[in-house]
Specification:
340 residues; alpha/beta; TIM Barrel; 8-stranded parallel β-barrel; 12 helices; 13 strands; 16% strand
Length: 340
């Protein structure tokens, strides 16, 4: 059995003795240490080569780490050494912010789910850029961008433009996070009029920046709680404005799958296995609308090869996971990639 094969029986029980957010912080701190020589050689993980080209980018394999795990890029090299085909960092905002009051992260153990209401807590975009500049990881790196909580919704585009300009030359793609349920009113940016306004400005800026010789794709991340009409409007806008990719989906505010379980009444975004079916359903709906004209990233309940194949069958070109990493450890990466 590999080192990481022992995670569920030996490591997870110890980590789960900690408050979820403390456990998360410890993981990132350890990752920042293990990502340095010579430790990185001991704790890296070899996976099968399953190269794919999406959005003009060459990925070593289709499986990536979803945003939220390493918001500030503190553990890029370690996480990259575990076999991910790409890492999505963030969500980052122009200014550092503390996020929502604690406690703000809860394990739904019996359902392999997580509820979080972190609220874009991060050290600010300048801090992330420094870590991006110092990384040794050669794989694809995306950055998820958002707005500061104190920025009025009408001025949200300014925050997205600030982040976009600062990370543009230091990452491979940029994810526009308009669907996190933990920042007040943010999901309103998914409505047709504000969405078109936001994407239009970002695409315009992308064109200016790309004139320098480097094109960085823009990806829109959507919620799983949208109606069919809302999904159709988003897909139409993304097609008309030539967005480069769509991520389906962010976390859900629905509690149908975990009703009555401990912590189910906590507010925030639910991820993991309870999100799996709905996220795949939304992914399939989006694919039915956009076809192969816009590449799709499938997220939500990717916790093994069956779930991964479901997402691919529903139209995903790339996959991302987060909660499965918490519950199963790094071995889940190798299991999925080797069997895709």
């Amino acid at each position: 059995m590999s080192l990481y094969g022992l995670y569920p029986s030996l490591v997870r029980p110890l980590i789960f003795c900690l408050d979820p957010e403390n456990a998360h912080s410890l993981t990132i701190k350890l990752g920042s240490i293990l990502g340095k020589e010579p430790l990185i050689k001991l704790f890296s993980q070899q996976v099968a080569a399953k190269p794919v080209e999406v959005m003009g980018l060459k990925f070593n394999n289709p499986l990536g780490l979803a945003a939220g795990m390493d918001k500030n890029g503190d553990a890029i090299d370690y996480l990259g050494a575990l076999g991910f085909g790409h890492l999505e960092l963030g969500t980052v905002t122009p200014k550092a912010q503390k996020g929502n009051p604690r406690p703000r992260m809860f394990r739904i153990k019996s359902a392999s789910g997580i509820i979080n209401r972190m609220g874009f807590n991060n050290a600010g975009v300048d801090y992330l850029v420094k870590n991006l500049q110092q990384r040794h990881y050669q794989g694809i790196v995306g950055v998820s961008i958002g707005k500061n909580e104190t920025t009025p919704l009408d001025n949200a585009v300014d925050d997205y433009l600030i982040c976009m300009n600062k990370v543009y030359n230091h990452c491979d793609y940029i994810a526009i996070n308009i669907s996190c349920p933990n920042t007040k009113d943010l999901t309103a940016l998914q409505e047709a009029e504000p969405l078109v306004k936001l994407i239009s400005r970002l695409k315009e800026e992308q064109g200016k920046l790309a004139a320098g010789g480097r094109y960085v794709p823009l990806v829109v991340k959507i919620a799983p709680d949208l109606t069919t009409t809302q999904l159709e409007a988003i897909c139409d806008a993304c097609l008309r404005l030539k967005i480069d990719g769509i991520t389906a989906t962010n976390t859900t505010t629905s509690r149908d799958a975990i009703y009555g379980l401990p912590h189910a009444s906590e507010w925030g975004g639910l991820s993991g296995e309870p999100l799996r079916a709905r996220a795949t359903e939304v992914l399939a709906q989006v694919h039915a609308q956009v076809g192969d004209r816009i590449p799709l990233i499938g997220v939500g309940g990717v916790n093994g090869i069956i779930a991964a194949r479901e997402k691919m069958a529903a139209g995903a070109s790339l996959l991302q996971l987060y909660s499965a990493f918490v519950y199963q450890g790094p071995a889940v990466i190798k299991d999925i990639v080797d069997n895709l």
